[in-house]
Design goal:
Elements lengths: L10 E4 L1 H5 L9 H13 L4 E6 L12 H7 L7 E5 L3 H8 L7 E7 L2 H8 L3 H17 L3 E7 L12 H13 L4 E6 L6 H14 L4 E6 L6 H11 L3 E4 L19 H10 L8 H15 L6 H5 L11
Parallel strand pairs: 1-8, 2-3, 3-4, 4-5, 5-6, 6-7, 7-8
Helix pairs in contact: 2-3, 2-11, 8-9, 10-11
């Protein structure tokens, strides 16, 4: 795809309040979570992943999901997303269904990662998700599914893209409205990303495809650009570059929202997010965490010369 074929606008889901906060060594106070989420909504985000219904003994950092959801006050056009790991988690979430709009279910493309993450073989996880998706839809909610290790597994190495597309097709057939593909430990490269999404867009018509990259090896933004050039218009990122995968040690770092938003805006691709307001939220989370974050735009500041540099 050449520059004049790039989309005018993309959708970005901010996942820091879930994917980011779950990896912090200490619990963030519920009031601070609510304040930060509302600040992100005020920055113009229309999609926010805010909670998880994972067992509290597994991820205690998110054990206040219900309090967070009931405490939020965001504009009515902001879509709130929760993640659920299994049918029990979904049952609990649905008891509070009036507080959110979208449910994310997930599995891994590789056997080893799936067993380490949820202690089940992939086929068992897939069968469970195929039961869960219709329940989510029947509750009047949007259903999204994420396939982790879609671009490589830290334990097995190469992941067959045909297998990833096959899993995605099963999930689409079960009723998922959106399919996310996660570069769980930052193993993807731009050439691989472009080829995969070109294939996936052809094989999975009528379903929103979302790119979720990690910056573990410094290729996160390049991979986002490759996905954009392939035709993807839905992305996920985390303010302050928070988060990552808690399973392999040291595999942290989602693509920073402020870096992604800045890049898109400099290219003339609208996100609906106010970059200055997003940076203010990233600085606020620094204060809450008591440590300095090092995402590039947060450190260097946005480019100030011209509205659309390089366009």
């Amino acid at each position: 795809m050449i520059d004049d074929q790039l989309p005018d606008r993309v959708r970005v889901r901010e996942v820091g309040p879930r994917d980011g906060f779950q990896n912090e060594p200490e619990r963030i106070a519920t009031a601070d979570k609510i304040r930060l989420i509302e600040q992100l909504a005020g920055a113009g985000y229309k999609r926010l992943e805010v909670a998880s219904f994972v067992r509290p003994d597994v991820i205690p950092q998110l054990d206040d999901a219900i309090d967070v959801l009931h405490g939020l006050d965001v504009p009515g056009d902001v879509e709130l997303t929760v993640l659920v790991p299994n049918e029990r988690g979904l049952q609990t979430a649905l008891e509070h269904r009036e507080t959110f709009h979208d449910v994310v279910i997930f599995l891994s493309a590789s056997e080893t990662h799936n067993r380490k993450n949820v202690n089940r073989p992939v086929d068992d996880s897939l069968a469970t998700l195929e039961r869960m998706a219709p329940v989510i839809k029947d509750a009047g909610l949007r259903c999204s599914a994420v396939i982790a290790t879609a671009f490589g597994c830290p334990y097995e190495g190469h992941v067959d893209p045909a297998r990833v597309v096959e899993l995605a097709g099963r999930l689409a057939a079960a009723g998922c409205d959106e399919l996310g593909f996660g570069d769980t430990t930052g193993m993807a490269n731009p050439r691989q990303v472009r080829a995969f999404f070109t294939r996936a867009l052809e094989a999975l018509p009528g379903v929103e495809l979302t790119a979720h990259f990690h910056n573990t090896r410094g290729q996160g933004l390049a991979n986002c650009l490759a996905a954009l050039e392939a035709g993807i218009t839905s992305f996920e990122s985390s303010f302050g570059e928070l988060g990552g995968c808690p399973v392999p040690p040291g595999a942290t770092g989602n693509v920073a929202s402020e870096d992604l938003i800045s890049m898109f805006h400099e290219m003339g691709v609208d996100t609906g997010v106010d970059l200055d307001a997003l940076l203010a939220a990233a600085r606020e989370v620094q204060s809450v965490l008591g440590r300095r974050l090092t995402s590039h735009v947060l450190v260097a500041g946005p480019i100030a010369w011209g509205e659309r540099a390089g366009v």
